[in-house]
Design brief:
Number of helices: 10
Radius of gyration: 24 Å
Order of helices and strands: HHHEEEEEHEHEEEHEEHEEHEHEEH
Largest sheet: 6 strands, mixed
Strand order of the largest sheet: 1-2-6-3-7-15
Strand content: 15-25%
Oligomer: single chain
Distance between the termini: 10 Å
Shape: elongated
Length: about 425
């Protein structure tokens, strides 16, 4: 039966390529969040033909959800012939903007030389297509399976997942007893199992000043100069300290096996969208957005505290210095245990197919596993899928057809084990 399952997937090589190309042709660019509805309908129509009961759910009230750009998600479920666990395959349908530098149509879904090209090919419409083909082949070979299978296509992962997996998790779609095991087909190579991710604190630091005429700056207080002092202290104190912190987490690439801080943006003075001559004002506000990635060995309170300590010291030492700090998003580091059922099932499938040990990795950035754990309370979850992560978000993004076929085989064999067929 297992040989029949693998042969069935092999016979659908062209189909997985065509399905990936079809998904790419939906320009689900986020922001602003285009074409979510048509893409969700396309997925639902396909899965209905395989006996799934489908729901298309709008994340009303979620960040970004508007009548012009509604946040639609599709969730499909097929019940087995007997009671048992539920295995859920979750993929996000949104993609980042195409950008410049392409030599092919970013939304053309071109199939050439064993690859499918287009924005989202790698991240992660190829993974979604591979999971659908894996499940359909499984159903053909094992129609009387126990338990249940779910497949979802969700919104907004590229902007935090709040209109997708987070919204669904708040409504019980990723919690036991509805779901027991989750596989997220993110592009992490077909012989890797991604156990989790580093933590993140997105925060905003605002330095405060006093507005005055620009020809008499001594009558005011320049918030931009205060922010310059903040950046200087981050460079002098915090960046060197972070470089020295290493983790036991198997983060890839190796450069991410330490704490990092990225300055995302800085805004002060005249508004960014103004293209005329500036008014002669001393800026009374300057805002700095920081992206702090931290390790399993660190605590969120300490991560915030070391930034606050720098700001408090500047307040003591620098005349008229004042500040505000606010959170944009916080996510704790996450690492699924290597002996968890979903890890064991996917690892055994990788050994069977490739005759080598899987590589266990941690993602440098977060993905929707964070919501499944922190909201859904479900920790038997990993990322596994086809594609090379380095190609994500780049021009001429592609996914290999052979890699999708191999990943579909791994997912199908894992399904056999997790459902106890």
């Amino acid at each position: 039966m297992f040989e029949s399952l693998l042969a069935t997937i092999d016979s659908r090589r062209d189909e997985v390529a065509r399905l990936t190309a079809g998904l790419i042709r939906f320009e689900t660019v986020n922001p602003p969040g285009r074409d979510y509805g048509p893409c969700a309908e396309f997925i639902a129509a396909r899965l209905k033909r395989s006996g799934f009961v489908t729901e298309i759910l709008r994340a009303t009230g979620a960040p970004g959800d508007t009548d012009e750009f509604p946040r639609f998600n599709v969730v499909a479920r097929r019940e087995g012939s007997a009671s048992g666990p539920c295995v859920h395959f979750n993929s996000h349908i949104d993609v980042v903007e195409a950008g410049d530098g392409w030599t092919v149509d970013p939304f053309g879904g071109e199939i050439r030389d064993g690859k499918v090209y287009g924005r989202g090919a790698c991240d992660m419409k190829g993974g979604l297509a591979a999971s659908i083909v894996a499940v359909e082949a499984f159903l053909d070979v094992f129609p009387q399976f126990p338990g249940a299978i779910e497949i979802s296509g969700t919104a907004d992962e590229e902007s935090g997942g709040f209109g997708g997996v987070a919204w669904l998790a708040e409504r019980g779609y990723f919690s036991p007893p509805r779901v027991d095991h989750v596989i997220i087909p993110e592009p992490l190579n077909k012989d890797r199992v991604c156990l989790g991710h580093r933590g993140v604190w997105w925060g905003e630091i605002e330095t405060l000043g006093e507005i005055a005429h620009g020809s008499m700056p001594f009558l005011g207080d320049c918030a931009v100069r205060h922010m310059g002092a903040v950046i200087a202290e981050l460079e002098r104190v915090l960046f060197p300290a972070l470089d020295r912190r290493q983790t036991a987490m198997p983060v890839v690439p190796p450069g991410a096996r330490r704490s990092t801080l990225n300055i995302n943006a800085i805004h002060g003075g005249q508004t960014d969208d103004y293209d005329g001559l500036p008014s002669p004002n001393v800026p009374d506000s300057c805002r700095l957005t920081i992206d702090r990635r931290f390790l399993l060995e660190e605590r969120l309170a300490d991560v915030k505290g070391e930034v606050i300590a720098i700001l408090d010291r500047l307040k003591r030492e620098r005349p008229r210095f004042n500040y505000r700090v606010s959170d944009i998003m916080t996510v704790e580091p996450l690492m699924t245990e290597r002996d968890a059922p979903v890890v064991t099932a996917v690892s055994d499938a990788i050994r069977t197919l490739f005759d080598r040990e899987p590589q266990y990795v941690i993602s440098p950035g977060t993905y929707d596993q964070k919501h499944i754990a922190r909201i859904g309370g479900l920790y038997d979850c990993i990322a596994y899928g086809p594609g090379i992560l380095d190609l994500a978000h780049r021009p001429d993004e592609w996914v290999g057809i052979d890699d999708m076929v191999d990943s579909a085989k791994v997912m199908a064999l894992a399904l056999v084990k997790l459902l106890g067929v």
